[in-house]
């Protein structure tokens, strides 16, 4: 027996394999047939080809691509089909996530408690893209009087909501002071992502009544203005509330500097980009496409974060400044459409993962007391705070009720909760995640089912009033002048 054949036999005995060798003349080189690079299957085993076919059928990556394709189809077609129904794309995507992840087809568990850093970053990206779209939508020129609804919701409704929710968390759920503050801060913002159905229409579309404007502008600004309360919760978790230095640092840096840096960066970057797009000699808007919206979003956010400001505030202010550079230019529509498509795609992906987290036990720690607190947040706290904020505004009662009720909770709340837990020591947070997840699910269903019919009914009533009093009736949304207040 030749040396090569002896070594091969020895290797076969040690590994338990049985390679088939071709018969070669003495002196010829030893070869293996190409098909015999795999070992022969043992009796009762599966052939390599069968194993390959089975792995393709259950490959999670292929299933992910299939699911992503389905989500993209939903993003493209569902808004048209659901236009006349009291349903939203968000409800369908959550249901799809629950169905897919309950079936056992995917072994991946998208629980935000496990993927805490990824949850923070992904929700952060979705929020800043939605903030750019929100800023580009607004036709109304900024001003104290014209934006009075916004200032009322931010200065009165938001702090009242934070205080009430924090008290419910502390007194009703037994949370520590730090965790109760984080609970209140995460429930403060009207979500700019999920609230897109009740926001203004595309730029210059005329779909901007007082309710839609108030919810759009509130969602654009309160994501940044609620951030100091998240930092206050982190400070409380570290025991800093008992020290003068901690409170001074919070007020001077987390409140003062970060807000000013966010506002200043947004103004400067928005003005610069507006000049380059519309007022420079070449007018870069004629050479660019909607991708500029994404570039503006990332630049405004990253530059502001580099100077330790609130990037959320900078992105929204930047969008408002770009819009104000040439208010009626058609390029705003192109930027808005691109931003809206990216936002919807990422939002639907997030909601499918949220449905998967629900299917894998996100609410397993929820108690009846937690559920009652969640119902109170959606049906009592925000509506009451919103109505108090609108006292003396002069708005009709129906509009005040809608502004108070449609304070939707969603992706922004997930971001704040993930950020706080990743940057502070709050102890066991499973129950807090369960309560927040329940409130978001409740908001998606309740506001998703009711928002469209309520706004359509308000529009019909306006049209009826305008038809009954054609001469004396004031327009629902008088055009704003462009020279201040």
From TrEMBL:
One annotated GO molecular function: antiporter activity
Any single Gene Ontology cellular-component annotation: plasma membrane
Compartment annotation: Cell membrane
InterPro entries: Cation/H_exchanger_TM (IPR006153)
Membrane topology, from the record: Multi-pass membrane protein
Keyword Transmembrane helix: yes
GO biological process, alphabetically ordered: proton transmembrane transport
TM regions (residue ranges): 61-80, 87-108, 120-138, 150-183, 255-277, 345-365, 371-389, 401-421, 433-455
Alphabetical UniProt keywords: Antiport, Ion transport, Membrane, Transmembrane, Transmembrane helix, Transport
Top-level taxon in the UniProt lineage: Bacteria
Domain Cation/H+ exchanger transmembrane, first and last residues per copy: 72-456
Protein's recorded name: Sodium/proton antiporter, CPA1 family
């Amino acid at each position: 027996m030749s040396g090569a054949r002896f070594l091969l036999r020895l290797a076969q005995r040690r590994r338990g394999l049985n390679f088939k060798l071709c018969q070669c003349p003495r002196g010829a080189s030893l070869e293996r047939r190409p098909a015999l690079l795999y070992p022969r299957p043992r009796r009762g085993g599966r052939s390599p080809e069968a194993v390959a076919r089975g792995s393709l059928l259950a490959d999670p990556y292929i299933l992910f691509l299939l699911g992503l394709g389905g989500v993209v189809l939903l993003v493209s077609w569902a808004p048209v089909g659901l236009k006349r129904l009291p349903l939203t794309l968000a409800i369908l995507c959550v249901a799809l996530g629950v169905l897919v992840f309950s079936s056992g087809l995917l072994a991946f568990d998208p629980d935000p408690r496990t993927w805490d850093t990824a949850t923070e970053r992904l929700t952060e990206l979705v929020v800043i893209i939605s903030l750019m779209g929100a800023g580009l939508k607004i036709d109304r020129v900024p001003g104290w009087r014209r934006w009075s609804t916004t200032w009322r919701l931010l200065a009165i409704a938001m702090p009242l909501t934070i205080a009430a929710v924090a008290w419910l968390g502390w007194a009703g759920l037994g949370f520590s002071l730090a965790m109760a503050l984080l609970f209140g801060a995460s429930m403060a913002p009207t979500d700019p992502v999920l609230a897109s159905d009740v926001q203004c229409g595309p730029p210059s579309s005329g779909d901007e009544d007082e309710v839609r404007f108030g919810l759009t502008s509130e969602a654009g600004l309160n994501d940044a203005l609620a951030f100091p309360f998240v930092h206050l919760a982190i400070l409380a978790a570290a025991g800093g509330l008992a020290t003068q230095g901690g409170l001074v640092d919070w007020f001077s840096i987390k409140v003062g500097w970060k807000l000013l840096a966010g506002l200043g960066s947004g103004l400067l970057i928005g003005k610069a980009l507006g000049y380059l797009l519309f007022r420079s000699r070449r007018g870069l808007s004629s050479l660019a496409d909607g991708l500029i919206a994404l570039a503006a979003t990332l630049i405004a956010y990253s530059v502001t974060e580099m100077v330790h400001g609130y990037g959320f505030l900078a992105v929204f202010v930047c969008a408002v400044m770009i819009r104000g550079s040439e208010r009626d230019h058609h390029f705003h529509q192109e930027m808005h459409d691109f931003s809206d498509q990216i936002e919807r795609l990422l939002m639907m992906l997030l909601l499918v993962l949220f449905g998967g987290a629900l299917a894998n036990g996100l609410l397993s720690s929820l108690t009846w007391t937690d559920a009652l607190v969640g119902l109170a947040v959606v049906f009592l706290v925000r509506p009451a705070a919103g109505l108090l904020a609108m006292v003396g505004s002069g708005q009709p009662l129906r509009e005040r009720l809608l502004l108070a009720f449609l304070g939707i909770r969603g992706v922004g709340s997930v971001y704040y909760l993930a950020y706080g837990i990743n940057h502070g020591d709050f102890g066991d947070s499973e129950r807090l995640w369960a309560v927040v997840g329940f409130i978001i699910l409740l908001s998606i269903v309740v506001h998703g089912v009711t928002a469209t019919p309520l706004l359509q009914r308000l529009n019909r009533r306006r049209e009826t009033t305008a038809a009954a009093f054609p001469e004396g009736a004031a327009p629902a949304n008088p055009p704003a002048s462009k020279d201040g207040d």
